[in-house]
Design a protein that fits this description.
The protein is mainly α. The protein is built from 13 helices and two strands. InterPro entries: AbiJ_NTD4, DUF7014.
């Protein structure tokens, strides 16, 4: 179901009381309840005793229990007798924010991956899931919660514009062009960032950028060493005309930007021993590197596609 722009929402915006900055350590009760409504849209055969909802809820429940090192999602004795769907619904309404994100990510991922299975209910199509995911993301934005569900994972968002115009296209291109290694590393960078592991986010960002360039070189049969650095890989892309000659002047500073951007920040802040004093990487710098990486990936992959 679409996110309806009802009167009270419009009034909040007019009064300036709607959230205009993202929060990351709170998930409002209203948002949790809205997510449960979305689950009910997805798993509607639960009330009819169908197997699809049972299988999905059980998979989510069992995965989380194993990862948390518990037998049940609830310590409530009575709750242990609940069906899996009820356990999941009770859990999301009471758990801490990080665990809300855990169960949201898993339920949407499991449901999407099971589309097409023999017992999938008739209403559950790729289009239906895309629409429900779009509602989920709009609810996150509506409540000012700085996360989005993209490519089967929850990702932290610092700027909705940058996310929509840079990060999302980078993920889409990596998936469409089957740059699997780079995609996994870019996802990993975002996962580290979401959990405040900013040094690790820098390292994975550079790995994603390097993997993108290595994949391009490999598919074009451009010879580079297996352990080629970012500088060497960038040189190979320019030397082989990834940027067309007539546009070389326009992009005269691009090579310097690429060479001095992600690799330099990663090497100085995240990639080497930190010495006697611990090196702190601020969150705003990690966010900058993630966005710079995404922009670089989009440019490289789009240029690669144009050369096919």
């Amino acid at each position: 179901m679409a996110n309806i722009d009802i009167y009270s929402k419009r009034k909040k915006r007019q009064e300036g009381s709607a959230p205009d900055v993202f929060v990351y350590d709170k998930v409002p009760e209203a948002l949790r309840i809205q997510i449960v409504h979305m689950w009910q849209d997805i798993f509607r055969d639960h009330v009819r005793g169908g197997t699809f909802a049972y299988d999905c809820y059980k998979a989510v429940h069992d995965i989380l229990c194993r990862e948390y090192g518990v037998f049940y999602l609830s310590n409530d004795i009575a709750g242990m007798m609940d069906d899996y769907g009820t356990r999941c619904r009770k859990f999301i309404l009471s758990c801490d924010p990080d665990r809300v994100l855990d169960i949201v990510e898993l339920t949407f991922k499991v449901a999407r991956l099971k589309i097409g299975d023999r017992d999938t209910p008739g209403h559950l199509s790729v289009r239906f899931m895309d629409e429900t995911i779009a509602e989920l993301n709009s609810r996150f934005r509506e409540h000012g919660v700085g996360y989005q569900f993209e490519s089967d994972a929850i990702m932290r968002v610092d700027s909705s514009l940058l996310h929509a115009e840079v990060v999302r296209p980078a993920l889409r291109l990596l998936m469409e062009e089957e740059f699997q290694g780079a995609e996994e590393e870019f996802r990993s960078a975002h996962e580290h960032y979401r959990h405040g592991k900013y040094k690790e986010a820098l390292v994975e960002s550079l790995k994603a950028f390097e993997s993108t360039m290595k994949t391009v070189c490999g598919r074009k049969s451009w010879v580079v060493a297996e352990n080629a650095t970012a500088r060497v890989l960038i040189g190979a892309l320019f030397d082989h005309g990834l940027v067309p000659a007539p546009m070389a002047a326009h992009f005269s500073a691009l090579r310097t930007t690429l060479e001095a951007g992600v690799p330099t920040l990663r090497n100085r802040l995240g990639g080497h021993g930190q010495g006697e004093e611990p090196v702190e990487v601020p969150d705003y710098l990690a966010a900058y590197v993630l966005h710079l990486t995404a922009a670089n990936i989009v440019m490289v992959v789009e240029a690669f596609k144009a050369m096919k």
